[in-house]
Amino acid sequence: MLYAEGKRDDALKVMSAAADAKDKTEKHPVTPGVPKPARELYGVMLLDSGNARDALVAFEATLKKEPNRLGAYVGAAKAAEKSGESAKAHEYYSKVVAIADAADNTRTEVTDARAFLTKR
């Protein structure tokens, strides 16, 4: 809500606290995963706010706790690219393509990943 109202600093503080709290909570092994982890949402907000370096840290933290999340890899790739870390961007875009290679080819995330990988 705060983010949608343009109160980005307040929204980032609240989301950071939520992500920290969520990181301390273990998921029961028989429950499904959350649709989008709080730390991943925090990364999206940071990236959208122009803070690519901190966004990359948030996406990488998400991937450590919840590996193979397509959204986290997409976010990490974009954040790495915007941070000028092309080797990391290449690594993460490669993961995006590997995970979603057999998926619907209309997904822009996969198309963008392929485009990045072919320009190197």
Write the layout of secondary structure elements.
Blueprint: H1 8-23, H2 38-48, H3 52-65, H4 70-82, H5 86-100, H6 108-118
Helix pairs in contact: 1-2, 2-3, 2-4, 3-4, 4-5, 5-6
Provide structural commentary:
The longest helix has 16 residues, at 8-23. This protein has one domain (8-118): Serine Threonine Protein Phosphatase 5, Tetratricopeptide repeat. The protein has six helices and no strands. The termini are far apart. Helix content is 67%, strand content 0%. Helix 3 runs antiparallel to helix 4. The protein is mainly α and 120 residues long. The model has no long low-confidence stretch (mean pLDDT 87).
List keywords for this structure.
120 residues; mainly alpha; Serine Threonine Protein Phosphatase 5, Tetratricopeptide repeat; 67% helix; globular
Series of secondary-structure elements, N-terminal to C-terminal: HHHHHH
* Contiguous helical run count: 6
Average pLDDT level: 87
User: What share of the residues lie within helices?
Assistant: 55-70%
Helix and strand content put the structural class at mainly alpha
Largest sheet: none
- In CATH, what is the class? Mainly Alpha
The fraction of residues in strands falls at under 5%
Q: Any idea what the CATH superfamily is called?
A: Tetratricopeptide repeat domain
- The Cα radius of gyration reads 15 Å
Please identify, by name, the CATH architecture.
Answer: Alpha Horseshoe
- Characterize the overall form: globular
State the total count of DSSP E strands.
Answer: 0
Low-confidence sequence ranges: none
CA-to-CA gap between the ends? 39 Å
Question: What number of structural domains do the residues give?
Answer: 1
CATH fold-level label: Serine Threonine Protein Phosphatase 5, Tetratricopeptide repeat
